[in-house]
Amino acid sequence: MTTATATIPAPPAHSGSLFQQAYEEVAESLDSVLAAHPAWQAARVLERLAEPDRIIRFRVTWTDDKGAIHINRGWRVQQTNLLGPYKGGLRFHPSVTEDTLRFLAWEQAFKNALTGLPLGAGKGGSDFDPKGKSDAEVNRFCNAFMAELQPQIGPDRDVPAGDIGVGGREVGYLYGAYMRLTREHGGVLTGKPLGIGGVALRTEATGYGTVAFARHMLEHKGESLDGKKVAISGSGNVALYAAERCKQQGAKVLTLSDSGGTIVCEAGLSQDQIDELKNYKEVQRGRLSDYSSPGVEYHHQIDPWGVACEVALPCATQNELDGSEAASLIANGVIAVAEGANMPCTPDAVEKFAEAGVAFGPGKAANAGGVGTSGFEMSQNSLRIPWTRSDTEQRLETMMANIHASCVEHGGGKGKAVDYVRGANIAGFTKLAEAMMQMGV
Ligand code: NDP
Fold first, then answer.
1. pLDDT beneath 70: ranges in the chain
2. Is 368 strand, coil or helix?
3. Can you tell me which atom of ligand 1 is nearest the CA of 166?
4. Using CA of residue 142, residue 172, residue 127, residue 82, what is the dihedral sign?
5. Do 100 and 18 touch, CB atoms closer than 8 A?
6. Per CATH, which fold does 50-185 belong to?
7. Closest CA to ligand 1's atom 13
8. Is the CB of 124 inside a 6 Å radius of any atom of ligand 1?
9. 364 an active-site residue?
């Protein structure tokens, strides 16, 4: 019989990788839990979770509008189906590698467990860059990608969704391709446009949910969102709807950004400006450098973290906010940070926030409203009865409140500030570990 010890198992060999960074953040939180459960150590629960069930890799060949042939790589990381069908988005971005998707799939396992819904975890994507491509080119790419992915997925097996570079347009094309291949209409992808099986509020859910989580963190500190100055990075799906929700709740949104630079609006963006930006980014696919509006300034190659604000919501991409930027936010009065993106804050930044007593909500808790609402879309598709916007909104609010409460339960201590990272990791891990033990080897 294996002797149980309280030491954290050595992480799988991926030194210096995003996966390694994400793994270490979780493993460091689990010492007391593993020490309290020798049977989980003997069963090697953490190591088994860290190794994906399987990784599928494939070539995607497609033709551009001029007839030239292009080759991209595609992947699906099926991390774990302990709690339900594999579930997690697809990312189309030139920076995507297997390591990117392994880190995202690992984070997804804990996030999906936190939602309390029957969702396993996965992540996939391609190094394809949809920027600057015509609709016809994106459509051809999506058809070629789905031709390879389709045998691996299904409503009860693996249910992908969107992520960076994959929005309603791409999910629609992917779903069309899946339907033509299988002749089946069902809940195989989430984030679908409303008319073809999407659920009301899925588009808004990640951003709205992140703001709900930030609001709970503030309320836990005896503060409120009303009147607070908020810096947001990104100007994609998560950022735009986080901005909208902040505005609705009385906060002032000072910034949005893209990979070219940041727009700053000292007076706070108005709802009209947010609506204009939604159309500009989602429909016209414009760059912030070409956006102009009264009271809005563009700063080339500058990120939002030098702006004085009380709340920061990084909503663009991983490792976009480092230790020196965290120090500048702290010096400028930040009191709460909630990650709309996955792992946007570096370990150094997270440490600085903790030292300064800044409430810090990690992405796996703060942005879980997106996948949670995808879970609602799966329920709606199985029931074949559309949910109303208020059904989804109510459930999303309850889910975010429950996730916040789980983090406080596992990451709080009498008289101590809540450690949301520890709380989220322990709450998610406990569910996964219990399921793994119940199912045996
Ligand atoms: P989008 O593609 O809609 O938007 C991404 C935004 O981030 C764009 O403004 C983009 O700018 C910016 N960005 C992307 N890469 C970089 C980079 N390397 N440097 C600077 N800016 C960058 O993606 P989403 O809004 O859907 O996703 C944003 C984050 O939220 C990701 O971390 C994603 O994993 C996470 N997330 C998304 C969920 C969802 O439901 N969509 C759910 C949970 C988490 P540009 O256009 O210039 O590239």
1. 1-15, 414
2. helix
3. 2
4. negative
5. yes
6. Rossmann fold (3.40.50)
7. 316
8. no
9. no
